[in-house]
Structures
1.
Amino acid sequence: MDFIIQNILNALQWGSFYALIALGYTLVYGVLTLINFAHGDIFMVGAYIAFFVASWLLGPVFGLDPTITFVLAIPLTMILTACVGVTLERIAYRPLRRKGAHRLYVVITALMCGLILEYGNLAALGASRKKFPDLLDKVIWDIGGVSVTNLKVLVIFAAIAVFIFLNFIVTKTKIGMAMRGISYDKFAIPLMGIPIDAIIVFTFILGSSFAGLAGLLFAMSYPILEPFMGALIGWKAFIAAVVGGIGDIRGAFYGGFLLGFIEVGVVTVFPSTYRDLFAFTILLAILWMKPTGLFGVAKHTKI
Amino acid sequence: GCGEDKAQTIKIGFNLPLTGDIPEVGEGSKNAAEMYLKDINSAGGLEVGGQKYPLEFIYMDNESKAESATNVALKLIDQEKVVAIIGPNSSKQAVPAGGTCNDNRVPMISPWSTNPSTTLDRPWVFRAAFLDPFQGPVVADFAAKKFNAKTAAVLFDVSNDYSKGLAEIFKASWEAKGLGPVVAFESHGTKDQDFSAQLTTIVAANPDFIFVPDNYNQVALIVRQARDLGYKGPFMGSDAWGTPDLVTLCGEQCYGNYFSTHYAAAGAQGATKVFIDRYQEAYGAVPADYAALTWDSIGMMVEAIKNAGKVYSDPVEMRTAIRDGLAAIKSFDGITGSSKFDAQGDPIKCAVVVKISDTGEFVFEESVCP
Amino acid sequence: MSLLKIDGLTQRFGGLQAVSEFSVEMQGGELMGLIGPNGAGKTTIFNLISGFYQPTEGTITLDGTPTAGLKPHQVTSLGVARTFQNIRLWHDMTVLDNIRIAQHYRMGYTVWDSFLRTKRYRECEKRIENIAFELLEAMSLADYAQELPKNLPYGLQRRVEIARAMSIKPKLLLLDEPAAGLNSSDVEGLIKLVRWIHDNFDITIFMIEHQMKVVTSLCQWIKVIDFGATIAEGTAEDIQSNPAVIKAYLGDDTI
Amino acid sequence: MQKYTFNFVLAASCLLMLAMAQYGLIDNYIQAVFMFVGINIIMSTSLNLVNGNMGEFSCGHAAFMCVGAYVSSVLSVLCFGKLLGGPLLPASMAVFVFPLIIFIGGAVAALAGIIVALPSFKTRGDYLAIITIAVNYMIISAIENMPSIGGSRGFQGMKDTVWAMVDTFNGPWMLLWVILFTVFTVWIIRRFISSTYGKGVNAICQDEIAAEIMSVNTDRMKLVTFMLSSGLAGIAGGLFAHIVGYVNPQSFNILKSTEAMVMVYLGGMGSLSGAVLSAILFTGLMEVLRSQSLIEFILSPVTFVFPDWEPSAGVIKWVLIPLILVLLMQFRPEGIMGNKELSDVFPKLKKYYSFK
Amino acid sequence: MNIPLLEVENLHVKYGNIEALHGISFTVGQGEIVTLIGANGAGKSTTLMAVAQLPPPEAPKIISGDIRFAGQSILGMAPDRVVADLHLVLVPEGRHIFGNLTVEENLKLATYARKGDVNDINRDYKRVYQLFPRLNERKKQRSESLSGGEQQMLAVGRALMSGCKFIMLDEPSMGLAPLLMYDMFRTLKELNEEGMTILLIEQNAHLALKFAHRGYVIDTGEIVAHGPCATLMENPEVKKAYLGG
Ligand SMILES: Nc1ncnc2c1ncn2[C@@H]1O[C@H](COP(=O)(O)OP(=O)(O)OP(=O)(O)O)[C@@H](O)[C@H]1O
Ligand SMILES: Nc1ncnc2c1ncn2[C@@H]1O[C@H](COP(=O)(O)OP(=O)(O)OP(=O)(O)O)[C@@H](O)[C@H]1O
Ligand SMILES: [Mg+2]
Ligand SMILES: [Mg+2]
């Protein structure tokens, strides 16, 4: 029994990261129908920013206490990562959009930007990995054979909070409606008096800053940073977002946790060498039964 | 030829994973090579048959991809006209590149590849590392003795042929001992970061120790997560642990664990110590085993060139001479210990078991010889 | 045997009843009109006939073959062609290609023939091309054969769409608001075109249209529906003076 | 006669290339680069069929390459190798059996293509993209779990077949086969998409609903297209395996698929000549930028400012290539050729070939 | 004479390299209803998009000429500012509704830049639902599944929700049933009487000329005739080309 509960907790933590990253994918997708393949790498950049911010705050100049560092690192990381995301939007995606390029060309550009971030990092910082400093005193609670750390709890709550916040923005506010509207018809947006570029920048700010937050939390949970750390988790988070129903905030959230549960579940039940094979077969089966993901609405073509 | 008068350079190619999955391996190897190169060339070159020839090293990136490794090998051979090649490091690249070198009759030494196929039936291909079938039992024997272990668990990387191979060999040799079963045999993917599901299974099986034949970066995460899940027993590792970065990344949680490797950095003596100190000074880090093995591979290559006794201007002749020179090396004293070579060109050398001390140094524990 | 027989056709979308108990029978050779307020379910009826939706209830029989369970392309190969309320041409392929592709169902060769360029392939391609050219000629579109539809004026695009539907050699042609977006003089042209098609091909036409001028001058019989159900039917004069139709659909034209 | 000019030029240059290889005028490396250009052409043109002509977004093309590579490798080792028991066939037959082996690899890959084709009946766009990615992971994972063909250790021994051919007649056999299969691929794709049958694929791309209602059997078209595309990728895989002499499941991971994707979009969606050109360009760029001295030259202004920085060609290459592509997209947001063919851009070319 | 509300002067625009308008000039006075008529492809929609300052590639690029609103040139103004600050709204050809939003959300989104009293906004909601009761019934429906005519209603309703004072309508009657079409024109007339300025494109030239005060006839990117509607209706050329005999 405790074995199962332990694995549920494992899945919750791992799913939280998928969910946090998938939310960023979905947010940008929900506005531009752009699969921002650079998102996983923005997440990586977020982790590195968190690393530098934390080392700087802990370092000789300030010499802050780790907990205060943690509290300060959250907004700083989010802001700086948002800047990276917005920069990408400005210099790479926007010109293409203005030229009316096919959406897949923007997707390929995003893929390329991701590579530039990865290898640029490798060129600038070298191949050796970075160790993220411990910011929170680790507490391990052992409840009837199940161990939980304070960090795990924090991560899970952060994912839920981010989801609630984003879901509110997207479904309840006018800016959220504008975001959804853009994805359907960019042409008519200015005709409603809506500044389209401002909304898009806002989306990138949201998406990237939460990628930064995810990067910080990830670096605290898995404190080893390397330039390619965002690649695989990024791809998988994208998969999670699609299985949930891309473009839908709930889809990304539940899709992330679903993928976490599938991966952990397969390892728990089957020999772990089959993890990818089984996990992806399950995902394929889900998409087979629900061709537009769990929450995705089939785009109705009125003829 | 008549090139004896001119100071002809000897070109050696390096087929390294500078990008891709394991860029740090490429970087470490390159660093060691640069150091060696500086040594030789600042001394005026390599003395062969009473004359000094400068060395030239050409590094090329194989992106950790099989087809790139063969392309790089061909480019080094055909375009750069190197006389010998060092690398690739991991078996995924070394097996195909070894085939290419063998077909094109160019001597190649892989510093780090432990897959038997790399050199099997390939008279032109050599290596500096011992093979997995040797390392597996070393670990099993040591753990049985040291921890009084009856049960073992294994966590390895399925997509990494090295890790998977070693895990299987270990499992076989552990079970052959008849002390007890391998209670958990779990795997993960190359770029995974979360191992808690596998570790939960392992911890639930309550093994006496966990064998983790994984790269050091994953080790750091695995050990940490295992401790978070309440595992208190020891870990055992393999030569892929042997990077000082392990301690930087893993910290105190790795202290007190053991791994088998090619050499022990702490408490090293003689040439090994000199190498370590100089490397540390130049690059600010203790060299990993692949760096040390690259150094030894170059050493072997240099000895082979000296064995040739003469530098031919025609690369084809020179290659044959080097190959014969390599085959002629019956034993070699390197910084990773001394080795003898068998008919396949594989070294027979001692493995070292190293303990990660309470100050985070790799302390020599025991040497196991075949 | 009648060409088209629809019996008790009902279509629901969730709680919404878009078509209810719609029935019609066409013997062949008619030119029938379907009118009704916006959202009355006209396009839905066309979608049901062409197999794009499967009806919730009711049957559709084409030339004696029930269409239940058939895919749209199978229904089309029974001899039903249609145009769309919003033009749906393949905008990046030439007009000629648009008309060639619509003959897919009677291409007559397999994918292997296309690789090997067999005799059969060449003959079939020749036939397809001939039919396409004849049709373009007949509908005075020959000059535009190599143009991309997106570069053509709206009126011509409508014409190309009708030509594409005709290349199917349909027995039944469904026209969904063919005059929408056309200016007055183009509307005249359209009326002539539809009449010409009706007179020169052995064809039955069923059309939806909001411009009463088009409906009254073309259709021999008109069905009026509202909320998915038939509220009136008859000749143009009958309809125009029917108070229910005036109330639900025609309104008064004082501005 | 004039309309055969192109074919003659093509045949002549291929023969010239083979002759040069035979008499050692171009070395093994250059030959290898040519061969990889050929393989990349097969990969990019076949993916272009799905991503360009049909307008889907398949991100897992390497999976089919993987299937083809493994199937033909295993067959090849069975027939001529000694790893799995003695050779079944005499070495002299290698020349005739080899193309068959490659075709069988392609055929099995085409069958694997059905895994993607079936879901494509119900879903499309980014959902289908995920299915292709999932299939890529699944196939790699499946092979990793098959110890009999090496699992993650990889599989080798295919060179024996190549040697068997060389023993029969000493020549650049692999180069010959790559040339033949590349030409075959382009030829068959060209024939397919220029037929009325194949144009149905473009119709699906531009308006699937109209296609379905205008009598195109969209399900069958998708099945045929996916199978053709993945079958050709399987052929590329078989050739790849025999050139490298070693296959490893991780050689066909998502990165490999990404390369194929980049080539398609670089060339221009739906443009066959674009896909060929971009494969040549991309492979060339990858090889040229291997050179450390070139990279040092390019970066000399930067290293002048930061003398401590030692750029390594391997790393910088992977910054430069994406950068070049990003810039290219800014200037030509529709790829090199857009959706046009070379003969649309230079209509005079039409006189010189009848490739159809 | 006071300055007209909208003045377009010698406007040249291009799509890519193709010039679509060759120097168009016209004016619309405060409170006027003006109509543009012309054949398919004459450049009517192009003109409206240029006035709304929409960006390429869908809309044309302005090469030369001037567009003034209340005497001020609005060239280079952001299209969303045109709506928010000038209360000048375009109902584009082809509806362009946000299909993934519900009918209600579509209407709500149109009030994005509106800085008015809540009561005003509520009054407008009422008016729209009154004019198009269908929309009220379909409030919660995703708008892409609306019928063609219903979508057209939504597009017009949306413009009314934006609190505009100047509305440009591009073929608003396309796909509408006669009853609704007449209703809509009557409402527009009412709005006009309350002070709304209207610039209308309409394929049905009869209707347009009956409805508007003044008209301009466009042919291949140039104005070929203009004047009060009554005069235009008598113009034999116009009669022949656009009134169908
Ligand atoms: N797929 C669908 N899902 C939900 N509702 C739908 C769907 N298709 C149509 N409807 C609804 O069914 C009704 C009938 O639609 P239909 O398109 O048939 O109308 P129509 O008679 O063609 O109207 P118009 O003249 O405006 O084109 C409409 O109210 C529409 O909102
Ligand atoms: N996006 C575009 N790209 C290129 N050319 C265009 C574009 N939109 C319109 N055109 C061209 O500009 C000219 C004017 O088109 P416009 O849409 O303004 O005509 P219109 O008078 O509104 O016609 P309609 O009655 O069909 O709506 C036409 O020749 C058309 O082909
Ligand atoms: Mg309709
Ligand atoms: Mg228009």
Note: Chains B and E do not touch (no CB pair under 8 Å).
2.
Amino acid sequence: MTTQTNTENDAAASADSASTILEVKNLSTQFRTRAGLVKAVDDVSFSVKEREVLAIVGESGCGKSVTALSVMGLIPTPPGEIVGGEIMFGGKDLLQASDDEMQEIRGGQMGMIFQEPMTSLNPVMTIGKQVAEPLRIHLGLSKAAARVRAGELLSLVGLPDPLEKLDDYPHQMSGGQRQRVMIAMAMSCEPKLLIADEATTALDVTVQAQVLELLIRVAEEFGTALIIITHNLGIVARYAHRVNVMYAGKIRESGTAADVYKNPGHPYTAGLLSSVPSLMQSTSGKLQSIEGEIPDLTDLPSGCAFGPRCPYVQDRCRLEDPPLENVGDDHISACWESAQFRGTT
Amino acid sequence: MVKTSDSVEPSSVDTARIQLPYWLAGLLRHRLSVIGGSFILFVAFLAVFAPLLTGFEPTEVDPPNRFLRPSFEHLLGTDYLGRDQFTRLIYGARISMVVGIFSVVIASFIGVPLGLTAAHFGGWTDSAIMRFIDAKLSIPGLILAMMLLLMLGGGVLTVSIALGINLSSAQARLIRSQALSVKEREYFHAARAMGTSNWRLILLHMMPNSIQPVIVQASLGVGFAILGEASLSFLGLGVTPPTPTWGNMLSLAFQYMRSAPYLLFAPGVAILLLVMSFSFVGDGLRDVLDPRLKGKI
Amino acid sequence: MTRYLLSRLGQSIVVFLIVSVVVFFAVRTVPQDPIYALVGEDAEGYTPAQIETIREEFGLNRPLPVQYMSWVGDALKGDWGLSFQNKLPVIDLIKKRIPFTLTLAVGAMAISIVFGISTGVIAALTRNSKWDMMATGSAMFAVAVPEFWLALMMILFFGVTLGILPVYGAVLIWDDPIEGFRLLIMPAFALGIGGAATLMRQSRSSMLETMGEDYIRTARSKGVKEKTVIIVHALRNSLLPVVTILGLRIGRVLGGAVVIETMFSWPGLGQLAVSSLQKADYPVIMAIVMFSSAAVIIANFVTDIAYSYIDPRIRYA
Amino acid sequence: MSMTTSTRSVLDIRDLQVHFPVNRGVLFIKNKGAVKAVDGVNLSIAPGETVGLVGESGSGKTTVGRAIIGLVKPTGGVIEFEGNNVLEMNSAALRQFRRQVGVVFQDPYGSLNPRMTAERIISEPLVAHHLFNSKQERRARVQELLEIVGLNAGMASRYPHEFSGGQRQRIGIARAIASDPTLIILDEPVSALDVSIQAQIINLLDELQDRLQIAYLFIAHDLSVVRHASDRVAVMYLGKLMEVAPRDAVYDNPLHPYTKALLSAVPVPDPEIEKKRERTILTGDIPSPTNPPSGCVFRTRCPIADEACAESIPELREVTPGQHVACLKV
């Protein structure tokens, strides 16, 4: 997109490179569908520091999950394909890594938890075997040792009767328990990075709180950095250090969570925040909503993809897609009108 | 495709709609369906215009000219009575096509109402219908058909009925399972909550949304019925001689295998190609009507 | 699981009872009075009094429900009545033929399973490659080919032209393994190849579907090697629907055996079925239908057991 | 026991019970116990009022809604609509009742028949209740409804798949208001929608209520949305009501320990508030409704439960004016 922003990112990264564990540069991932070519992720750059909690937030089709799957090397090909960019992790570009190298990284140094607790575990394999699998692969533990460690991990994630659970099958557990098992499994080799893709979306509120607290606690204990992918702005506010706001395949705004919420740099972020009714005080009358519909990814509007829904849209927005630019300290946003928009907010 | 919150496939359910131009267009893009469909039309043409396409009668015996090898006059040779094989083949096509289509129509008329009734009313009605279908399925199809023919006597219609009854249980099971899933859909609940009558529920909501796999199954079923008729005729139990069918032609060819092996080929290849054509069209329909299975089968 | 299996067993018994009722009444409501099957079409040489005596002798003068009850009662005791054709006990005829049909069915199923599942899985894993094309293409062919024509072609080629395989008769494999096997090859192949095609298509689509499941992605996210993903995670799950198909295949095989046994002069139940049907030998027909239906029901029950063994969701239900 | 405050309510549910039998047995089905999906619920809705019904999975909130519209058969209790018990109505009265009660479901993809055009979908209740009998009248009504819900009248001939999720939900709403109902059951009407679309639909529902004076039973699990949309809020857990009160009382001064925990579990989209909020994280899972705990159903996860809670079932009682709580410790 713009070299200017990239060099800035590079500079920021190299200044603090000792603690940056993941750096994604200009990542683009596409899917060939019957409806046409979908640019699910388009020129996305961001980085994650050690022990950091990064949130990627956005609505359906924004590309947040595809970003995560690209990092993990789990894009199903075909129909998907990573068409450009770099994913630097542990001094290596993952996009150049061989299958064997990727297998070593996945589950060893980088783990992932998925949205659907009901379908993400193998239904015909015991919990114990599934949790032991990465231990045997990456740490080379014996069958017996892996089983012992799996039991410890299950107790670490707070499952009652962990040793009995080893021989249970997934269908015997509740959704919350399965997500705990997923955490135990993903964290078993104490990875440097864990990606939680809508990991608590399918859970009830009280269970969601338990699982999130657990995730944060275990990550802190193991010194693991987290990427939380969610559409829930509350979760981001509670747990994230930094936040990337995505819309139609691109990062539109990025900054510290405190900064982005207090002083959004993009009309989309602002609209999103004001669309959520408040829990803390009663409101009546109209909610501020974003008009229009989420665009069809096979047929994006020209210029800024948010343009057609944006209350601040100008002619320029319809012609040129704005680059990410600094709007504050460690806070970037892609909006031609950000100065004007922020003045009016 | 990735199953995530932001699935990038724009609403894959979309293509599930049924509109004539749409599925026809879909089928026409499906190469094998086009080949299959063309062959079916070709056979139908031969069957319909059989009397115009040959100078012989299918049952016309000509003892001096028995066991003639294929020639210009007798494209596929003659059999032990000197009957022209090509003539018998295209007249036989009539039986195959008619039995194939009749059977499936009969199967659908039995199976679809049974399946819908079982699904809609559930409980004892469902159990009774399903156990009955299980019982029927537990009797090997060909044996059942043979028993029915014993009761009903041979002939095009009875063979179609026997094979139709056979195929009906698959239809009933299929539409029942589809209808059961429709019953769980919210549009069905919404219609019930509005006080829509049972008839409207079944005819407007349940049937149109569960009929697709039945259509696919029907086109495959035509193939099964053609095979079934051929097997029965081969055993001398289906359509009886002298009416030519591909099955009884092969039965005769079997008896004279050593003296006239060339008689073995044409009817067999004809059955094979016609059945394959129907299965191509069925696969095409499945791809068009049920995008979930696209490219999987 | 016990409860699940017990309920399936209960269902099987109900189904079997329905079959017996349907078969009995279907056969007895045939337009033709069964007595003529016994005494011949025009009852030549019989006086009406004699016919009545025979009717009584075979119990054909009692009300149908009574006849049904006594038929079931006797059948359970192993007495299936006498064949109309040769007045031999039906059960002896059946007993003699079961081993042959069983050998043929097992052979055919083995061919279906071995060829079907392996090619299906390979085709799925090499999707859109030339292996996949070949496997899918031959399956399309094999599903559509009439089994009796395939048998004809094999007889013509291997039996008549090359003369390397016998085309006629049967020897039980435990009486003469080599000859038994040589005799079995062609009929088993003709009977099994359609099933192989069905299983191939089913296991291919099932494998493809499984490979798209969330837990496969989970396994990959753990760094499991692709080979292990397939063998450990995908195979067992994708075999579940295939097992269901297997149970249903038995019925098709027994049906197909009717034609194949007739062609190869294989002295099994299928051949007996054809000859009894031609002679309207009701006691034998009923016994054959009941035995084959029982075989299918038992096969389905065994499938349920196998299924619950593979799938813990049923085992622990 | 009755907590009906208004004598003039549209809907009055008293001691509603929906128990699903658990069938066991091989040949002969034996009835062994029941899932108590809804167990003794009392709730009333005044004309034009919105009552929010919140709860987690297994709470029975959806079953309450389904019992009202007749999709499940209650095993006990009374559902009174404008003074008449729905469960004892003859078919003519039931028909009238169904005309006056609309329903909007959660799934914008599953709630519209994919084989019907928007016009046919919206005119379904009109056909079912013999309203607007001529074709032209019906067509005009459908176009009017489409415009009311913010869609273009020209979209009438489209099929559901040609609409986006938000638009489909608008069609569902048009169908629900087509027969001029006095009450609409909203079963998670926005939870399947994206945040930015949610707000649009909530606004539409608000607007329709003002305009048409419809009462809503708003069933949802999203507590922020319920606060915005409701006048009163009822909190359910394992088939029972825990707390029923005007919304400000529930949110600003929750009395039941479950309500408190539920509210504190919801993260608020404001990092500054989040830093200061105290939270109660409940331990354990929601018990299975097949085998609910004795006494108070919440006691197994309750931070203040003691032996007494295992012994007696707390009744819903008015603790402060208008605020009903089912807890022995309050």
Note: The two ends of chain D are 17 Å apart (CA to CA).
